[in-house]
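Changelog-adjacent note: as of this version, every example in the card shows the full chain rather than a window. The one below runs 541 residues end to end.
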Amino acid sequence: MIGERVLNYKVESRLGEGGIGAVYLATHTQLGRPVAIKVLHPELSSNPEIRERFRQEATTLSALQHINIITLYDYLEEERGLFLILEYAPGQSLDTFITQVSGPIPEEKTLYFFGQMLDGLAYAHQKGVVHRDIKPSNFIVTPQSEIKILDFGIAKILKEGQAKFTKTGTQLGTVLYMSPEQVQGKTVDKRTDIYSLGITLFEMLTGRCPYDGNALTEFQVYEKILNEPLPRMQDFYPRIGTHLQALVDKATAKRPEDRFQSCEEFKSALLSLKGVSPSMPQVAQTLFPTATTPPAPPTKPTPAKAKTGSEAERRRHRNNLVLYSMLSVLLLFSVWFIVQELDLLGPGKGEGAGNDASVGKVRDENLQVDDFEEEYTDEEDAEKSKTPEDILMDSLEAEKSRIEAFIKLLRKDRESVLLKDLLVDGQFESDDFGEFVIQVTVANRRTDARFEEIVVDIRYFDDSDKELKAREQALEPLDPEKSLTFRVREDVEANKFTVKLQKAKVIDLEPSATLDSLNTELGLVKERLEKLEREIIETEE
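Full-length structure tokens:
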């Protein structure tokens, strides 16, 4: 295929090959746009039924236009085979990213990636397309930290005709990521994708698949999928929180009706349960998307400062110390009493002054415990006096802060990506008439961003790299795909110079779907906070 032409594209190189075909990098001969061309194996593409299904599915895929889904540009059916002309997304597959770059992906970065995966699949499910082959190798992580989903619909097409093919390597999907109903050959729906997403989330957080494909036979993997719960993620990576384990458990439930019923519900739970203590089930129930009843009106609201996880840990630790101290005293008293009854202390040891001393010692220890308990009585009483509304208020405030911090992080990452395409270059022109003249060009290569408040930093140096002079140049705003060129004249005897971007304000014209979703979530949390505050005020009045 290399060197051949497919429509207006010249095939440049092979990107990869799998069980159903090969993928090539090609370039449009006039536009210079790179694309990926997927070519099905001849034994698949020569079957009339497969060709018909493929044609129908290509029509469906052409309607999927989402930032997190690889776009289908064109479809070709000819004697050489069946061709999909696809958007080319440079980067690494998620499985390669995990094994060669990151290992277990940090929680915040996992949530950033996984939110995009859920957004893309939610969109596809709304269009009636089920992927059926969700696994890390079908996600691309671009240099801009964007997620692109591959191979939509192909698994569905070939799965229907799979019984007609026996060639090794044509089986679709990877059994390690299949749902129970999928390995049983039952009818599947979007909840199968959700199961496979749960397995993928497990691998992102732990750096490994829950099942060892090298140590287990296919039949053994089937048995585990059907009959055994997944291993605990903390067994592989102890720093994973219980809230994430709960999400994976729900997503990978054996029965489809016990899983998240949509990607939207999965994402809502991903945001809602993060950071909620398992000791507050009433809060988890309120925040969890399946909750159906509003919180009851407060009876006696008591303003309370939200406690952090570390404060809660210290409080539990102090309570444990109190309990252990009391048990120790009771144990000592019991032993002393039994010894007295059995007269094992020897003559004269069970009566008189010795008795008083022993009892006095126990009383002293009891007094120490009492003093220790009293020290924390006020704090414990305040905690016990908190109503469910107080706890919910604390949790919602924490959730609001967490989402705001996450939005800030995403915006910072996005701005960093956009700023890389604001290019600044300087060319020396002359140093005639005592002036050092530089031609500066500033170009906005983005189609989805505008830059304002641009400031360019220019510095002049002599042969020994000693800085002679520095100046800042403020520029007009730059619209998408626009550039400007200007000359800078400076009275300085320099031999070298540098021209760099000092700062610029980024106007993102196409915010990501993930950011939009987070802003929606933030708005809902703020609405619930305001409503709860109004209810508390009305009750107080």
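Structural remarks: Confidence is low (pLDDT under 50) at residues 157-173, 274-376.
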